[in-house]
Amino acid sequence: MMDLIQNWFTLVLVPLTSIITWWAARHKRNTEEAQLDNDTVNDLRKTVDDCVEQNKRLYDKIFELRVDYSQVKNECIELAFKNQQLAQTIDMLKRANEELNQTIEALRKENEQLRKLISPCSTNSPSK
Q1: d(Cα 124, Cα 127) in Å, to the nearest integer?
Q2: Which pTM does this prediction carry?
Q3: Is the pLDDT of residue 119 over 90?
Q4: Which of 3, 24, 55, 103 is most solvent-facing, going by the fewest CB within 10 Å?
């Protein structure tokens, strides 16, 4: 009877150990695949986190640049206004310069006429 049990045990032991080995290998393979999937998911998560962080920095930079742009735009508007005022001042100075030139020319002509009038008088006056 003992031999019969031993024979059955031997017959059952081989398939049983094969099944146990197959199950352990399958479990290990599934665990490795799950670990690989977890690594992939973790890598993707890290990549997404890096992208989010970089996106945040870019938005901050865009905000700073918009503030700078607004300041530059305001300065340009102010400079354009000052430029317009300067152009008006220059036009006014040009007109004043033209008027002064006309006055100077009129004074020169008057001076010339006065010299002509004085010239005959000085030649007619008695010498001492």
Answers
A1: 9
A2: 0.47
A3: no
A4: 3
